[in-house]
Amino acid sequence: MYKLGLSCYYHDAAAALLRDGEIIAAAQEERFSRTKHDPSFPRSAINYCIKEAGIDVSQIDHVVFYEKPFLKFERLLETYLAFAPLGLASFATSMPVWIKGKLFQKRGLIAALSDTLGNDIDWSKKIQFSDHHQSHAASAFYPSPFKSAAILTMDAVGEWTTTSWSVGDGKDLELKEELHFPHSLGLLYSAFTHYCGFRVNSGEYKLMGLAPFGSPIFVEKIKNHLIDIAEDGSFRMNMRYFDYCTGKSMTNSHFNSLFGGPALGPDMPVKQLHMDLAASVQKVVEEVIVKLATHIRKQSGESNLCLAGGVALNCVANRALKRAEIFDNIWVQPAAGDAGGAVGAALAFHHRVLGAPRSLPNNHDRMKGALLGPGYSDQEVAQSLNQLGASFSLKQEHELIDQVARALQEGKVVGWMNGRMEFGPRALGARSILADPRRADMQRKLNQKIKFRESFRPFAPAVLAEAAADWFDLENDSPYMLFVADIVEDKKRQATAEELDLTGFDQMRVERSVLPSVTHVDYTARVQTVDGKYNSKFHALLTQFEKLTGCPVLINTSFNVRGEPIVCTPEDAYRCFMDTEMDMLVIENNVLLKVDQNDPSFKPTSFQPD
């Protein structure tokens, strides 16, 4: 039986296809439309999933949407009534949109399915709906490697729920407790994201990267004025300081007065104040999560914990949770945000509603390394590159691995497209930009000439799983790049007294380890461990680089530039390669060198802030 899961109409629309409970394919619509965080109906993602499975649309037994639109409308309406007459203008603007396009979303979904897959099938008989947080919980538990576990989901808001915990056992999934809007850890973090000049729903990871430059001096002010945290981790937010219930802004004049001025605009420079605020809200979020986890462990008795929801992408908080040693094992859904809801909705219906049994893989989860998107043969790649007028050569795999490893050793930057595309926000060696982390100038080079993004943004290391403990303080594998870890002591470089006095972005001038381009200012790195089970070619490249250099680590950043989604097709990869100062492009076994390309339109761009 085939089940199609869908998430859309808010942000990060996606589709996922199950065959008898096995995830066959999953992808975000943005990868096809080239619109970052595309919220629209995932037509291209659906068509990809069906093509990948090799089935006819008539074989789809159920289509499951990741949330319940009527409950979401109820929350919106009750919120406006609760805060009336505040927010009247916002109410007048949003109500027509909801009534026309979202309130009767089932009808719209059926029409979109008919338009995408044909109207020979009565899609009204196949469509089902899942609660938003149930979709998150299912996406976390059912693909996890655990027979039973507690599940914690945290995001901005679903229909009403913002935080929930459940218990999963086999095919069963039972909700235990939940917190409701407007009290939301995700919205608290987004409020500070907005205040520090970053875009909500996409800039939260920038706030996380900014935090180590500051000091958490505002923790008590946040706890005294903005959020009241109970010992069990439940919390209430003081809505006097927030405007997301009644307007289109996250914060208001009271929030501004509390921290000494208005929110930053996107073109304004970040100051020490914003670094300190980022550090402070990060600490508050970690405190809440640790208290929640302590309560959940006590109430559930479970030794395993699964995480999903957008807050679960905060890999610094994930480290704090792991260090607290509340649970023996923690597993995070790699597509923890709304895109993963497509997977979770389908899995919840399959196991929880239909009662299908759940099988456990040996020593691995069921996400297949998150490599669930499109892949391309060498023949397909060659056809695309020929149409683009590219100069390339086809290599035997062992020749390619050696050539790329030597180029990386020489300081070259390599675009790497290999196998099926990743599902979720992280590049994991299928759609990656790779470089040598030992070079102190590589972080600046990548940020300014390749990624065109803020200079303070750190880069993540990919490391051979079998060598990870020699370089990073990791207790377990981290295949999905969802935990930060300290650099081990013997790889650190101790700062001088003068360097220790540096503040703000001046701290970036200090080389902190033998891997300076992946070591953040607090001596941490967001680590991906690579064991070769799902991406043997990437593992082979890391192995060859270690043979040449003694270092089993590479910089691994997503194959895209600022403001664009990760590349999907060979055409996407080639255009990104030509629009940046990358030196080499590898697509499957095809190698392209920048010096060999004859494209008069290529003009390297320097970084310009948004």
Concise account of the structure shown:
The protein is 34% helix and 18% strand. With 610 residues, the protein is of the alpha/beta class.
Descriptive account of the structure:
There is one protein chain. The protein has helices at residues 30-33, 43-53, 69-83, 88-102, 105-117, 132-141, 185-195, 204-210, 219-225, 253-258, 272-300, 315-323, 340-353, 378-387, 397-409, 442-450, 497-500, 536-549, 570-578, and strands spanning 2-7, 14-19, 22-28, 60-65, 127-129, 148-154, 161-169, 172-180, 227-229, 235-237, 304-308, 329-332, 393-394, 414-417, 431-435, 461-464, 483-486, 524-530, 553-558, 584-587, 590-593. It contains 19 helices and 21 strands. The longest helix has 29 residues, at 272-300. Helix 6 (132-141) packs across helix 13 (340-353), helix 7 (185-195) packs antiparallel against helix 11 and helix 15 crosses helix 18 (536-549).
